[in-house]
Amino acid sequence: MIFRFLSLFVILFSSALQADTHGVRLKDLASFEGVRGNDLVGYGLVVGLDGTGDGLRNAPFTEDTMSNILERLGVNVTGEQFRARNVAAVIVTGRLEAFARAGNRMDVTVSAIGDASSLRGGTLVMTPLHAADGEIYAVAQGSIIAGGVAAEGNAARVVQGVPTAGSIPSGATVEKEIEFDFAARQSLKISLKTADFSTAARIERAINAAIGRNSARMADAGTVLLQLNGPDNLSASHIVASIENLLITPDTLARVVVDQRSGTVVISKDVKVSRVAVAKGDLTLTVQENPVVVQPNPFAEGESLVVPRTSAQIEEDRQRYLAEVPESTSLSDIVTGLNSLGITPEDLIDILRSIKAAGALHAELVVM
């Protein structure tokens, strides 16, 4: 098992090296200014639930919303008392993608805000979705798909998944477009998802080589400025389409990520270790209680007593391991050496921490 675990490191490392030689597309490394989505949110009502809706005594806002909807539909419910359990107040969220046009469809997520126990089988009533500016950009309506399930009896209740949240695929219609004239832009900012000076410089060189003029300029580690008004009179969309598939080899910091809960260790390809010695040994402490019951002699007056008996011993693994790591060792050398020690993933985490504390691990150690 240990051999398979450490061998997997070598396989993943080799695959990462092969991927680096081919490069990564520019649109996977960076985002273009203005090409982004916008979050929408709305408050609505779900009807048609099978007795799993809000208790109107605990969620009075649900009753108010239902009264307003019925009155808009021409039903006068003033002064009436509702005790239905088939409605629930919900928050509807969605994302309006970049360049979405009126009439396009988008997915929405529906989440209960009252004491409803499940939204399974419910239908969302027409709900307007607002952006941060308060304007309505989409309207959502449709049947909810909830993945969770809940069952209860008189003395017990069991819940699997989250039945109080669901989704409506293509459940909203875009009613208003976001005003953004991308074609009229004369310049554009390319923002790196992970800021790095070397990666930004490579993007600058690749764009200038592809377009044929010095139109790209690195502003900082996370931004590359692109001038779009060239002599060939290409539109901004044509220029972005011609450069977004350029293959760039990103440069990243040397980093070791450790997940203590699952015992997962991820090591980047640029991790180096200075000359250091690693020793490994096991120490086992065993304490065992063996109480003894002492009985009085026959025909003698007395009581039975319990006499404590404790045995304690310390066992030390005689097979101590001492390995020396040479100067500027790479990841493959580290894996080979740790594999020869026969360590477990938990031991690997402790060894990496100790090497970092000794100042021999030249990488950022991230413990999750």
UniProtKB/TrEMBL annotation:
It is found in: Bacterial flagellum basal body. One of its GO terms (cellular component) is bacterial-type flagellum basal body, distal rod, P ring. Assembles around the rod to form the L-ring and probably protects the motor/basal body from shearing forces during rotation. One of its GO terms (molecular function) is structural molecule activity. Belongs to the FlgI family. Keywords: Bacterial flagellum, Cell projection, Cilium, Flagellum, Periplasm, Signal. The basal body constitutes a major portion of the flagellar organelle and consists of four rings (L,P,S, and M) mounted on a central rod. The gene is flgI. One of its GO terms (biological process) is bacterial-type flagellum-dependent cell motility. The keyword Signal applies. It holds the Pfam family FlgI. Residues 1-19 form the signal peptide. InterPro entries: Flag_FlgI. It comes from the Bacteria. This is Flagellar P-ring protein. The keyword Iron-sulfur does not apply. HAMAP family: FlgI. It comes from Marivita hallyeonensis.
